[in-house]
């Protein structure tokens, strides 16, 4: 007779089951925040929201906020840098970092959205500083590209992140994917080539810095999986942002002073002539932080997989919205290339899931 597994349950306690398999950070193809622990789920501020809204409505509101913030920051960046004439992408990125640092401090220290974590060693500090440098490069390149490229084409290029992730994972960690995963990347590349050849507003420099931004985002994902591997060094995504944002602002400060001249005086002069610009900058910096906050909330109330699916759809939604607002010309071939790229990203995600199931 086979004896069933049993355990004793005491009052006010829960049984524990040991997991037989674990997934390391390096196995993740896309940089997604971890599902928060129970103490985060039981945060009193979220409990108050839950008392006013049903779980389904609350989740729908969070997903809507995620779309609003992710698409909103793209449109605001495009408007400021390209339409409005604010030609300082590095300084704008530095404002984003300062905003993220301030809002993160309030959210963690006062609102206690997540438990506060601390940097424990000089080695851990240097690792986070390295991630901040890659983060700076990626965000500055992304914002700079919006000066020269329409949002729709910018998002098409950004959708190729899995392609660069697979390349960096192989070059840095010698990690090989299955043949199915590599085949799924072919339409990702083919689609962007198709879209590039038929983009009416193609700009070579804008294209190159946008590719650099996409590659930087993929590199950060891979490097983060390598550097912050130990349990003692691993930080929650919101705590990681709290430490990365001020480091990134300090890294960007000499570059904005060197490359963008007396940007502070020029910004103040523009604000004196048009006070509405102050509202634009503050709103833009606030929405930049909301992107990170809603990433965390979507994962908390749904799952990392849902966030990945929403990310695949976001590029298409942002492209459509930007075309409707900015009226940039599009071609049938360009839309076809974008669709092929998105289809390749979806196939890649499915192939990654299947390969992980087979591996474990």
Please characterize this protein's 3D structure.
The protein is mainly α and 360 residues long. The chain contains 14 helices and no strands. The protein has helices at residues 38-41, 44-52, 55-83, 89-110, 122-145, 151-158, 161-173, 179-197, 204-227, 237-259, 263-273, 276-301, 304-326, 332-359. The longest helix has 29 residues, at 55-83. The protein is globular.
What is the 3D form? globular
Arithmetic mean pLDDT: 84
Main structural class? mainly alpha
SSE run: HHHHHHHHHHHHHH
- Describe the largest sheet: none
Q: How many whole angstroms does the radius of gyration measure?
A: 22 Å
Taking pLDDT < 50 over at least 5 consecutive residues as the criterion, the unreliable ranges are 1-36
* Strand residue content: under 5%
Note the gap between the termini: 29 Å
Number of strands: 0
Number of helices in the DSSP assignment: 14
Q: What fraction, in percent, of the residue positions are helical?
A: over 70%
Task: List the topology elements.
Elements: H1 38-41, H2 44-52, H3 55-83, H4 89-110, H5 122-145, H6 151-158, H7 161-173, H8 179-197, H9 204-227, H10 237-259, H11 263-273, H12 276-301, H13 304-326, H14 332-359
Observed structural traits:
about 350 residues, disordered N terminus, about 75% helix, globular
């Amino acid at each position: 007779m086979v004896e069933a597994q049993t355990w004793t349950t005491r009052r006010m306690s829960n049984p524990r089951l040991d997991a037989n398999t674990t997934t390391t950070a390096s196995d993740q193809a896309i940089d997604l925040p971890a599902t928060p622990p129970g103490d985060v789920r039981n945060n009193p501020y979220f409990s108050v929201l839950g008392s006013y809204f049903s779980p389904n409505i609350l989740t729908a509101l969070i997903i809507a906020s995620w779309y609003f913030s992710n698409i909103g920051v793209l449109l605001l960046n495009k408007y400021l840098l390209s339409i409005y004439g604010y030609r300082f992408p590095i300084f704008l990125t530095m404002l984003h970092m300062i905003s993220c640092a301030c809002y993160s401090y309030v959210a963690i220290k006062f609102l206690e959205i997540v438990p506060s974590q601390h940097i424990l060693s000089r080695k851990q500090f240097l690792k986070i500083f390295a991630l901040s440098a890659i983060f700076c490069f990626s965000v500055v390149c992304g914002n700079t590209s919006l000066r020269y490229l329409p949002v729709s084409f910018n998002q098409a290029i950004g959708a190729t992140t899995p392609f660069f992730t697979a390349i960096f994972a192989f070059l840095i960690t010698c990690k090989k994917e299955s043949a199915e995963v590599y085949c799924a990347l072919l339409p990702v590349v083919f689609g962007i080539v198709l879209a590039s050849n038929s983009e009416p507003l193609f700009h070579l420099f804008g294209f190159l810095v946008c590719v650099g931004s996409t590659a930087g985002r993929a590199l950060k994902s891979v490097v983060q999986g390598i550097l912050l591997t130990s349990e003692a060094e691993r930080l929650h995504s919101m705590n990681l942002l709290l430490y990365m944002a001020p480091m990134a602002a300090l890294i960007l400060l000499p570059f904005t002073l060197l490359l963008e001249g007396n940007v502070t005086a020029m910004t103040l002069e523009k604000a004196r002539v048009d006070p509405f610009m102050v509202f634009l900058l503050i709103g833009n910096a606030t929405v930049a932080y909301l992107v990170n906050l809603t990433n965390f909330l979507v994962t908390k109330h749904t799952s990392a997989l849902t966030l990945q699916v929403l990310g695949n759809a976001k590029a298409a939604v942002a492209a459509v919205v930007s075309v409707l607002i900015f009226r940039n010309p599009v071609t049938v071939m360009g839309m076809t290339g974008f669709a092929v790229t998105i289809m390749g990203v979806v196939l890649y995600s499915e192939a990654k899931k299947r390969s992980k199931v087979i591996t474990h």
